[in-house]
Amino acid sequence: MNSRQRRGVILLILSVICAIGAFAGVLSLIGDVKSEVGPEVTAYQVKADIKPYTALNAGQFEKIRMPKRWLSANAVTDLAQIQGKTAVTTLRGGSLLQSDMIVDQPALQPGQQEVAIMIDAATGVAGKITPGSTVNVYATFAGKREGDPDQSKIIVTNARVLDVGSHLVIDPSADNKNQQPIQTVPITFALSTVDAQRITYAESFAQRVRLALVAPGTDTSVPAKDRTYELANDK
Fold first, then answer.
1. CB count in 10 Å sphere of residue 1
2. CATH classification at residue 68
3. What torsion, rounded to 10 degrees, do the Cα atoms 20, 26, 30, 32 define?
4. Where are the alpha helices (DSSP H) in the chain?
5. How many C-beta neighbours within 10 Å does residue 57 have?
6. With 80 as the cut, is the pLDDT of residue 159 above it?
7. What does the alpha-carbon distance between residue 136 and residue 221 come to, in Å, rounded to a whole number?
8. Are residues 117 and 89 in the same domain?
9. Does residue 49 sit in helix, strand or coil?
């Protein structure tokens, strides 16, 4: 091997050593960055602008992952924290959701009152309705006179649920021993005076009262002519 070849071999060895050193340096840098950044955790950001005092739901936010050390102490990491909450100010799309952006929904608005009625647990609630839900209240009534058709009526629209109580079992009355015990649930609503009268009337005189869960943001206004249903008039 002549001197030129030896120099080539030496340069090749030096290049390999430098490459190994550079690779080791990159690995060390990556390790340092990871150690500085730390583990990642779940956080949530706002999908689109949310107006103040709007009731919050999971669909308004998207899950992201970010380093725990970069997360503020009041960042929301569990969407269970937004249940029964409203936006305290405008929440801008893309902003990180934090607990100081939200407040408890006021129990009652001016002019409202709390009203509780008993609802059949199987047909009226079925485990889907929780505090903060918005529901429409349907009631079925027998005809006023013999031969009159039975009717289904929308008694109240957009009733806000304040509380869902524990299941209670009501035994059949003494004059109807063949009836099975009924599981009922006390539901507390925030209602206007007129709607409170409607819903208590339905509880007292309707054959059955049902609650229909309303999707967030849905317009459920119903014209007066469409609030009563009779099978004979169904086209």
1. 7
2. 3.90.1210.10
3. 90
4. 3-37, 193-205
5. 15
6. yes
7. 10
8. no
9. coil
> For 89, how many CA atoms within 13 A lie in the half-sphere containing its CB?
7
Structural contact between residues 228 and 151, judged by C-beta atoms closer than 8 angstroms: yes
Per the structure, the count of domains in the chain is 2
* Tens digit of each residue's pLDDT (9 = 90 or more) over 14-66: 676 766 766 666 555 555 545 555 678 889 999 999 887 788 888 999 999 88
187 burial type by CB count under 10 A (0-12 exposed, 13-18 middle, 19+ buried): buried
Same domain (yes/no): 163, 226: yes
> What pLDDT digit, counting tens, does each position of 64-112 carry?
988 887 788 888 889 888 888 888 778 889 889 988 888 877 677 788 8
* Same-domain status, 80 and 167: no
The torsion angle over the Cα atoms of residues 217, 221, 226 and 228, rounded to 10 degrees, is 90
Residue 121 tokens read as: 């647990």
Task: Name the residue range of residue 58's domain.
Answer: 40-104
User: At which of 104, 129, 146 does a domain end?
Assistant: 104
**Sign, Cα dihedral of 197, 124, 224, 109:** positive
b/e map 201-210, b = 16+ CB within 10 Å: ebbeebeebb
Residue with tokens 């099975």: 180
Total length of the chain: 235
DSSP state of 72: -
Of 84, 104, 124, the last residue of a domain is: 104
Question: Does 3 map to a domain?
Answer: no
Whether 153 contacts 229, CB under 8 Å: yes
Q: Does the global pTM surpass 0.90?
A: no
